[in-house]
Write a structure and sequence with these properties.
A seven-stranded mixed sheet has the order 11-10-9-12-15-17-16, sandwiched between helices. The radius of gyration is 21 Å and the shape is elongated. Helix 1 runs parallel beside helix 2 and helix 5 (180-189) runs parallel beside helix 6. The chain is an alpha/beta fold and 332 residues long. It has helices at residues 2-17, 32-39, 77-90, 111-118, 180-189, 208-216, 229-238, 276-284, 306-312; strands spanning 22-26, 43-47, 68-72, 96-102, 122-127, 130-136, 153-159, 162-168, 198-202, 221-226, 243-246, 258-263, 268-269, 272-273, 289-300, 315-322, 325-331.
Length: 332
Amino acid sequence: WRDRAASELMSRVLAGAGTRGTVLVMLEPRPEVATAVNEAGGTAQSWHRFAREGRSASAWIPAGPYSAATLRLPKAKDELEMAVHAAASVLEVGAPLWVYGANDEGAGSASGVIEPLLGQVRTVKSGGRCRVLEAARPVDVPGVRGSLPEWRQSTSLEFPDGQREWISYPGTFAHGRMDSGTEALLEALRSYPLAGQQVLDFACGAGLVGAFLSALQPQVRVELLDVDALALAAASENVPGARLIHSDGFRALEDERYNLIVSNPPYHEGKAETGKIVESLVRGAPDHLVAGGSLVLVTQRRLPLADLMGATFNQVEVLLDAGSHRVWLGGM
């Protein structure tokens, strides 16, 4: 409901704003906002990070200038900050930036992130448990970071071959750290026979699982798949030379088949929990596994997966059951 209510509220603002020129529509998954821009007399230029539903996507916004911008509220504060800086770098002087989202997503507190860069922020419309904030691009924006490399963050993580620099960007999964689900998955894979294997890291994020497996067994051939263009930008630095596949699930794959598909799949879209990604991974994996190949994935223990795995694979095994996570193997 959040995406629908937020986009409808933003569309009503645009209908009364008389927007002209080219408007940058940022991170909006639904069509209503771009449609409202065009109907108001402007030209919508949409930017997506996520290649869902056949949309083209990229890690950074297209070059401006723009007469206005709309920004669907990201879920993380640092991701919001990066997006506001990106918008400010391409807006014309005096051009509005509208940031909108649901109240329980943090729309009420977003002004605290926007004001240090753009100055005064006001609520121009609210309703349906959502709100639209407005700020204008001032003449000078000191300290604006208007390119992706300026948001590159480096940490150090422990791999089987020693400490390694790790690159991440705001909004990427497990930003700069190893989450507990990935730890469980990697623990289960330590004894898995990998030599000479063709491996797909599905929903790879910044490439942590693929990088770990490459360090564990240098002869493994790893390919990295994710829906998020920004995650793949980080993965390209973390796993140099690996094939990167920008895809919504398996959609971009054709006849590719692997000995092993590994995944720590997401089960949230924004604040909403969904099992759609896990289900599509399990159901789709057999079409991309060689005979005798396997899917190994980690999920939270509370997610019911036994029936789905049993209906899909000839062999089903729990490789690790510890804490809040369970690592499943499905074999062909």
